[in-house]
Amino acid sequence: MHATLPLLKATDFPPIRRRAVETLQVNLGYTCNQRCVHCHVDASPDRTEQMGRETIDLVLAVLAAKDIRTLDVTGGAPELNPHFRDLVREARARGVHVIDRCNLTILWEPGQEDLAEFLAAHGVEIVASLPCYQQDNVERQRGQGVFDKSVRALQMLNALGYGRDDRLPLSLVYNPQGPALPPDQRRLEADYRRELGERFGIVFTRLYALANMPIARFGSMLIRKGRFRDYLALLRSAHRPENLERVMCRTLVSVDWQGFLYDCDFHQMLGLPLREGSRGHGRLHLSDWLEMDLADNPIVVAEHCYGCTAGQGSSCGGALS
Predict the structure, then answer these.
(1) Helices 216-224 and 228-237: crossing angle, nearest 10°?
(2) What is the mean pLDDT of each run of 10 residues along the chain (321 residues)?
(3) Cβ atoms of 27 and 39 closer than 8 Å
(4) How far, CA to CA in Å, does 153 sit from each of 82, 128, 132, 263?
(5) 71 three-class SS
C-alpha cells in the first residue's frame, strides 16, 4: 500500500481550535468481516488489533470525568471486540448516548445472531454503511453478497423498530464510488427513501453523505492510478470557509484501540496524534486526559482536512451545510 502521509503534511489549511468535547469516538479494533475498497481504517478479517478491558475501563472513566454525553463506537466491526457489549451496557447505564457504526453484514456473522435485539434493547443508535441503493455499486465497493445481506439486515432492524421509533435512530452512510465529491445530501436521501422503500419496504431516519479521504486504501488507489494530486486539487478548489465552524474535530476526540488520542479518526489512521497545547510533542493517552482540559486546544491539520470542508462539507454526521 502506498503511504499518503508524506503527500499530505505540507498544507495551508486554516488553523482551528477545539471547543468543549461532546463526543468520544472510540475505535475498538481493526478486525472486520469485510474488506471495503474505500476503507480509511484498512480494516479486514486479517487484522487482529483489539481494545482490551483495561482501556475500555479508561473510556468509561473519561466519559464520567469529562461529562461526555455521546459515545461513538467504531472499528473495523466494533461488535467483534469481545468487550463491545459490556461497554454498551455500562455506558448506557451511565446515561450516555451510544452510536454503533455498523456495517450491517455483521448481524449475520456466527455468534452475532442476537446482536440486533441487543442493540435495540439498549437503545443504541445505529449508523449503517450502505454506499448505494443499487446492488452493483455496493458490491463493487464492499464485496459480493453484501447488498443482499445489508437489505435483509435493514429489514430486520425495521422490524425491531429502528427507523420507525424516535428512540431507535437508524442512519445510512453514503460514500462516492471514486474521486468525486458526494452529491447534495438532501436530494440523495430522497432517492434512497424512494428506492429502498419501494423495492424493499425499508425506512430509515436520515442519510449521511461522506467524502472519501485520500488516505489508506482509497488514497493508495488514487496514487496507483495517478489521480491523487487531482483529487487533492478538487478538495482544495471546493473549500468553503463557513464549514470550518462545524467540522467534527472541534467537539470530538478519536481514540485508537490502544487508548491514544487523535483529533479525528482520519488522523488516527495517518498516525497524527492529538497534541495538547502546552506540550506540543508526544502522544496523549486516555489516562493523560483525565488530568487535563483540551478546550481551546489547537487541532492538528494536514492537506486531507480539505475533504471535510469541500462543497457541502463532510463529517461523521454527514454534510455540514
Answers:
(1) 120
(2) 86 96 95 64 73 98 98 93 97 98 93 96 96 80 81 97 96 90 96 96 97 88 94 97 96 96 93 73 87 93 97 92 84
(3) no
(4) 21, 10, 15, 32
(5) strand
For residue 108, the number of C-alpha atoms closer than 13 Å in the C-beta half-sphere is: 16
Say how far apart CA 118 and CA 89 lie, in whole Å: 10
Cis amide prior to 317 (ω within 30 degrees): no
Nearest residue to 286 via CA among 51, 38, 15, 74: 51
Query: How many Cα neighbours within 13 Å face the side chain of 135?
Result: 9
3-class secondary structure, 267: helix
The phi, psi pair for 25, rounded to 5°, reads -100, 120
Rg (alpha carbons) of the chain, rounded to whole number: 19
**What structural domains does the chain harbor?**
5-309 (3.20.20.70)
Report the Cα–Cα distance between both ends of the chain, in Å, rounded.
Answer: 34
